[in-house]
Amino acid sequence: MGKKNKEKTPGDDRKVTSAVVEGLKKLYKSKVLPLEQLYKFADFHSPYMLDSDFDARPMVLMLGQYSTGKTTFIRYLVERDFPGMHIGPEPTTDRFCAIQYGNEERVTPGNALAVQADKPFRGLTKFGTAFLSKFQGAETPAPILEELTIIDTPGVLSGEKQRLGRSYDFVQVTEWFAEKCDLILLLFDAHKLDISDEFKRVITSLKGHDDKIRLVLNKADMITGQQLMRVYGALMWSLGKVIQTPEVMRVYIGSFWDQPLHNDENKRLFDAEQRDLLSDLRALPRNSAVRKINELVKRARLAKVHALIISHLKNEMPAMFGKSAKQAELIANLEEECVKIQRQHGIPPGDFPDLNRMKELLSVHDFGKFPKLDKRIIESMDEVLANDIPALMRKFPQDTATKAEQLLGELGE
Amino acid sequence: MGKKNKEKTPGDDRKVTSAVVEGLKKLYKSKVLPLEQLYKFADFHSPYMLDSDFDARPMVLMLGQYSTGKTTFIRYLVERDFPGMHIGPEPTTDRFCAIQYGNEERVTPGNALAVQADKPFRGLTKFGTAFLSKFQGAETPAPILEELTIIDTPGVLSGEKQRLGRSYDFVQVTEWFAEKCDLILLLFDAHKLDISDEFKRVITSLKGHDDKIRLVLNKADMITGQQLMRVYGALMWSLGKVIQTPEVMRVYIGSFWDQPLHNDENKRLFDAEQRDLLSDLRALPRNSAVRKINELVKRARLAKVHALIISHLKNEMPAMFGKSAKQAELIANLEEECVKIQRQHGIPPGDFPDLNRMKELLSVHDFGKFPKLDKRIIESMDEVLANDIPALMRKFPQDTATKAEQLLGELGE
Ligand SMILES: Nc1ncnc2c1ncn2[C@@H]1O[C@H](COP(=O)(O)OP(=O)(O)OP(=O)(O)O)[C@@H](O)[C@H]1O
Ligand SMILES: Nc1ncnc2c1ncn2[C@@H]1O[C@H](COP(=O)(O)OP(=O)(O)OP(=O)(O)O)[C@@H](O)[C@H]1O
Ligand SMILES: [Mg+2]
Ligand SMILES: [Mg+2]
After folding, report:
1. What residues does the ion ligand 4 have nearby, CB within 5 Å?
2. Which of A81, A88, B181, B211 could be A92's S-S partner, Cβ–Cβ 3.0 to 4.6 Å?
3. Contact criterion met (CB below 8 Å) for B131 and B168
4. DSSP secondary structure code for residue A219 in this structure
5. Consecutive H or E run containing B96
6. Closest by alpha carbon to A233, among B68, B229, B280?
7. Is residue A114 a contact partner of residue A124, using CB atoms and an 8 Å limit?
8. DSSP E strands: which ranges in B157-230?
9. Ligand 2 pocket: which residues have CB below 6 Å?
10. Residues of A with CB below 8 A from B234's CB?
11. B106 forms bridges with which residues in the sheet?
12. Where are the beta strands (DSSP E) in A278-363?
């Protein structure tokens, strides 16, 4: 994409995106994180965010049965060979590979990659060495990798081979990446369409990320136009049954590599599809920034409600006697306490976390040790939501800003 | 199709087909019907067959939302206007219309058509005058109608209009025709794809006839190649959810009328699809003859088992006293009696009819009045199955004969 990309993603766009991300990072550290830390947010909800959580480039996850052309597709996007690349007709890619920007060509083994604090792969340690030895990073100075990181994966095999041949849980690892990625490309080979039960299982596990999924019907030039229609129809017919959303998934039909078309009957279609796919990829950094705003807003609202709950509980505690009885009572009546908070501070009910989980987590804390409500810090959080975030959004060109506002609108309901 | 058709359906083929149908008719009347009548088959299973049940031309049922081009499609097949034809952008066809061969142009009102013994529409009387006044026949001397009869239908409307605007049960009527037809074409407008809940309900009601269904994505030349792919994908995605079979339905993509293509980007595809559709239609008479053989075999086997059951029951009856007690006992123990018949005559268990239904029907008959087993007539039925039908099948060219034998093989399991 490098050259093709350059004309259309003006440097401006990249500047805006990184300015927004920097702004988010500053907001989080100066206004959200202090509130989170005061009320032990990480003990209840999710870990404090690190710079790397903001800086990570948008990620694209490639999935497909073996030999559908995943690695070749990546080779085509980065316009160069990358270290550790293997392409061939047999199942070739035998590991997950994060293809990232780097000034020099380098391969980093999975065990090393998963402990780097500035990379977004720390969470993978939970899959153990059995997986990490089948994971690696590949750095190469391809321009497109300044915009996004690509995850190559081993092709899904059929039957026993997939189940027994892997020393780790393929579906769980895929789910982890799906969660972290901004786009998931499912590759299919038009020339040899096959959707094994194992691949169906992988697709089913992507549920909840439907909006990130795009389909690629690759090698579409290897068959006649009429055959292509049959194959494409069969693909949609089957996938419609596997993926439960009524909205149709976008499919890009073509041949995604640097070779001339075998059958150019559909050249016009293939060219248009390639253009669309590339411009979708180009929009990723911006969309990813919108998503990060979106997530920070969700998080800031939760941090505020969390602070209100904790400080309210603290406030209800007696000064001297019967502390543990009162604490138990407060936990048992958490629902009613939350209704009070809701009324007093005008919080929408949808903003409250799962109270059953809260109850469990609260029971291991001593309410006496919680800090009192600090009004200024809550006001500062309200300012984040009311002023700082909208100001960040105004940095985007009109269309993206509108999209972002829609997202926030949905959240506000 | 007329002219296009002539070169490829040699008169030979038509001769073979009608020879087979004549043969079936003779077999039924000379060997199957006498056995059926002897043991009152029609009281228990289905009405005695008339010549018209054999002679009826294969029927093609057209279904689709309004304005998808159903009537235009028929106009294109018959290569002429037919009486009562209405084509237009608004919902135009307001009734079911059977377009049949006739030496002269003629319209027959539904009430008259449904009582004609030589036509296959007698069953429609059960839908009453409310329906029959929305049904008509159109005769015209188009060559293709010598091979098949076409049923035009009013377009399915959306929402209330469909439910309230019809004075009869559209889904039930459709089901009746689906049962009688050899091919069901579901038309969709690529230019304005819409699958209303009402149309989905119609499609769902076709369950059990999946092998007869073909899809037509019409007006495919009114949009660009890329739009067509989106629309086609959406169609298959949605239908895959509505129709439960894993096998993909065949779709014919094109523009089925006599006008030049609006956008000829996909001319090659459209031409190939048109050819395929026409040759599928051409194969109908032969396939329909195979289906008739198939049905006669099923019927003959059932008639034989029926005769064995009835004559066995007769045989078990006492000569003088305790007749009604014995009859009640036989009915209550019908399962065990059938096991005896099964053993004695070597009948596969799958050949027996639904015994609960049998019990009910038996209770209103007097076993004493049943005739005794006539060995010769059973032997004659065995001859039908062992010799006469295979001899008829040998009249077909090799490929059809093979197909027919497969069908029979499945039955025999
Ligand atoms: N667009 C294309 N058209 C035709 N052939 C292709 C295309 N892309 C890739 N191929 C060929 O398909 C084969 C498999 O390619 P590749 O190794 O990239 O697939 P893969 O999906 O990465 O497989 P694996 O899952 O085994 O890693 C190779 O022989 C490659 O040359
Ligand atoms: N292949 C085609 N390409 C473009 N337009 C078409 C095509 N076939 C039919 N039309 C136009 O679509 C409109 C509807 O056609 P027609 O009346 O045949 O549809 P229909 O399905 O029979 O509708 P209804 O259900 O109301 O009877 C007409 O204006 C007709 O000219
Ligand atoms: Mg590979
Ligand atoms: Mg019509």
Report:
1. B 70-71, 93
2. A88
3. yes
4. -
5. strand B96-101
6. B229
7. yes
8. 183-189, 213-218
9. B 64, 66-72, 87-89, 91-93, 154-155, 218-219, 222, 255-257
10. 236, 248
11. B139
12. none
List, edge to edge, every strand of the sheet that includes A96-101. Answer: A106-109, A135-140, A96-101, A149-152, A59-64, A183-189, A213-218, A251-253
Q: What is the pTM of this model?
A: 0.81
Q: How many DSSP H helices and E strands does chain B contain?
A: 20, 8
- What is the predicted pLDDT for the residue at B3? 44
Q: Is the pLDDT of residue B296 over 80?
A: yes
Interface test with B, best of A210, A214, A232, A236 (most B CBs within 10 A): A236
- Tell me the C-alpha distance between B342 and B344, whole Å: 6
CA distance B16 to A53: 76
pLDDT tens, position by position, A312-340: 999 999 988 888 899 999 999 999 999 99
The continuous run of DSSP H or E covering B98 comes out as strand B96-101
Alpha helix ranges (H) inside A86-165? 110-113, 128-132, 160-165
B272 touches chain A (CB under 8 A): yes
Question: How far, in Å, CA of B105 to CA of B83, rounded?
Answer: 6
ipTM for this prediction: 0.80
Residue A192 C-alpha, separation from nearest chain B C-alpha, in angstroms:
16
The rounded distance, in Å, linking the Cα atoms of A332 and A261 is: 68
Is the pLDDT at A200 greater than 90? The verdict is yes
Rg, chain B, Cα only: 24
- Whether B242 has its CB under 8 Å from any CB of chain A: the answer is no
Burial of A171 (0-12, 13-18, 19+ CB in 10 A): middle
Q: Is residue B216 a contact partner of residue B102, using CB atoms and an 8 Å limit?
A: no
Coil vs helix vs strand at A62: strand
In tens, the pLDDT along B309-330 reads 999 999 999 988 888 899 999 9
Q: Which atom of ligand 2 is nearest to the CA of B218?
A: 1
Measured CA to CA, the distance from residue A177 to residue A209 in angstroms comes to: 11
Q: Contacts for B386-394 with beta carbons within 8 Å, 24 or more apart? A: B388/B23, B388/B27, B388/B31, B389/B27, B389/B293, B389/B296, B389/B297, B389/B300, B392/B20, B392/B23, B392/B24, B392/B27, B392/B293, B393/B20, B393/B293
Distance CA A348, CA A221 (A): 54
pLDDT tens figures, A275-318? 999 999 998 988 888 888 888 998 999 999 999 999 999 999 99
Degrees (nearest 5) of the Cα angle A104, A107, A111? 135
Query: Which segments within B221-311 are labelled E, that is strand?
Result: 251-253
Strands (E), B262-303: none
Which residues from chain A sit within 8 angstroms of residue B235, using beta carbons? 236
CB atoms within 10 A of CB A312: 18
